[in-house]
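Hi W.,

Here's what went into the run:
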Amino acid sequence: MKQKKVYIGCGAGFSGDRFDASIPIVKELKNIDSPKYLMFEVLAERTLAIAQQYRLKNPEEGYSPFLDSYINPILDECLENNIKIISNIGAANPVGAAKRILEISKKLNTRTPKIGVVIGDDLLEYMSHKEILNSPTMEGLDFSNNNITAANVYLGARPIADALTQNVDIVIVGRTVDSALALGPLMYEFGWEINDLDLLGAGTICGHLLECGAQVTGSYFADPGFKDVPDLANVGFPIVEFSKDGTFIITKPVNTGGLVSKATVTEQLLYETHDPSNYLVPDVTADMTNLELEDDGANRVIVRGGKGKKPPEKLKATICCDNGFMGEAEMSYAGPNALARAKLAGEVISKRIETLGLQGQLRVEIIGAGSVHFSHDEESSYNLPENGDYRVRTSGIYPLKHQAQQLVDEVMSLYCCGPSAGGGGRGYVTPQSSTASILVDRKTVDPNIRVKIF
Amino acid sequence: MDFIDLPIHAIAHARAGDKGDVSNISLIAYEEKCWDIIYEIATKEKVLQIFKHLGASKVDRYELPNLYALNFVIQNALGGGVNSSLRLDRHGKTLSSHLLHELVLPIKKDMLPKNSPYRQKFKD
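Here's what came out:
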């Protein structure tokens, strides 16, 4: 008998990722006669804080604002071909997301899906603000004076695997470690237990490689002449073929652009990784240091050697708080002596903000002069031409909206009050949210994790 | 002329990620033949120096010899991190290019990948 393989495609790597990326994956998976899954990872830290705001305004909302855009194009084909969908598209309201998917199913006249919803990540449902604030802090600011807008603990893959035992078509979660969207199905299909640490490690590494979508298949990689990627505009999102022994192959759908190579896989492996021998998730401490990569034909890379150790004792949670408003505004200077004029514009803004008495840190940088690697008052190591195309950018965060607007107004006033020939002014005011990470006891969280079936 | 001082971009590639105010940047040899020199040159002290002007306070270096890769974890380099930084690039996503540009080393033509545009800098 052929060894069982599990196929997992990833159709989105962040909230707002391409809405049609999953279509070629579904096309490919539907012809495969093995367990097959489609994951969507669409929940960044800030996305959840914004989603909580929506839910406060309307208790039916708070799931991903892009849910319809991701689910509409593939729901029918997934249900007809037994491709199970796993996603954190639930954001601040996983139950609301399930209800919305049932509405979409009715509208599209598909088979009615059975949906498993994992709840228990929202600490505000079972911990007081005081308990949250008294938890040990891993990183971030002191929040005791701020209004907590979201506090969610990162759940692991076990609840997803539990949901799958109930014969569901779709599993919706809120805050869960991204890699668990792949580890959950693998745990369920191969029957992994908590002490199968090396396999859990390999599954976590697999999920980590999938969770940013096309970042493992040639996106965020191209450096023309040095690292060329064919047909980047048509990049294919990843599909993994996972074997029982913990070895897996990363590939992408046929007739798509992009590139799967040892180099693309290595870049993504270390993306947002700190200590590669201690990659912490609730189910395991994954160890990447023994990994071996091998080419297996065009756009296929074999990954071997994933290992695992005991999982961390405590769970990580992210707290979000309101943090005032950011004003950002820009103005361009080009042609003869443009660098000097852009610098003068920056000086004018700095002096005006001082005169107006706006308290807070102001940043002035010149786009075109190394803005993202240096700042206005530092000497850039680049040899900058005096003539060129430069854009002064200023930003500041203030407690009140009108203060942030004042900064924007000052940049706009460069039109009449600034150096010669400034143009293309743009300005924005956006609400800010700060985050911190805390550690929470499993015994506080575990009794609150449940799977609801819809 | 055997050696020319070139940015490490000639022999390695990189990607930056962020978590809070911590940036991590991988540095990966294009080919096995340059692993030893990258391993030797790209010290955590040098990387700290390259990112000090952005506020970097500490650098840890992790090694993955199987993959010819290093991973640098740089503390306090992101102006507060994605939620509070005033910078245009709040994630520090572009910092991988800064590392590739600022880390300079003497390079011989045969260290370069076969089709590297840097080959044009060498006169035969």
